[in-house]
Amino acid sequence: MSQQFTNIYQNHYDKVYRLCLGYVNGDEALAKDLVQDTFIKVWEHLDQFKQKSSIGTWIYRITVNTCLLFIRKQKKGKFNESDILNSLENTTEEKIIQENRLQQMYACIQQLKETDRIIILLVLEGVSQKEIADITGHSHQNIRVLVHRIKEKLSKCVSHGI
Q: Cα(151)–Cα(5) distance, rounded to whole angstroms?
């Protein structure tokens, strides 16, 4: 089982990390902690995986649940913006602008309802709409409509500022 887990970890780490990063407003250290919690759960429950879905879908489900549990434990989930600004001090102006846009996008994503946030983070990760439907329990058609509406909300949020 350890070689199987090693393969799973190597194949899914980056995707799980990026998904966690979206939940914690770009906080890399916190995202890494959530990734570690996710893979501990994968390790502990790997023998219970029934292959009713792909291993990736199963891991995404664990990741989403791990992140949501963490967020629920936090009162408001506010993050220290000064840490973000300090990390940008030695970068070029263009990179600063890009980082600010990215942080603005994360902030807009954080304002979405829980289900919408799950859906858009999976879309950003490149997960197919069919697989998102499987993960969230929505119909494929409903996911298509929701993705369109979520993208509109995010576009308005990012273009008008927070």
A: 35
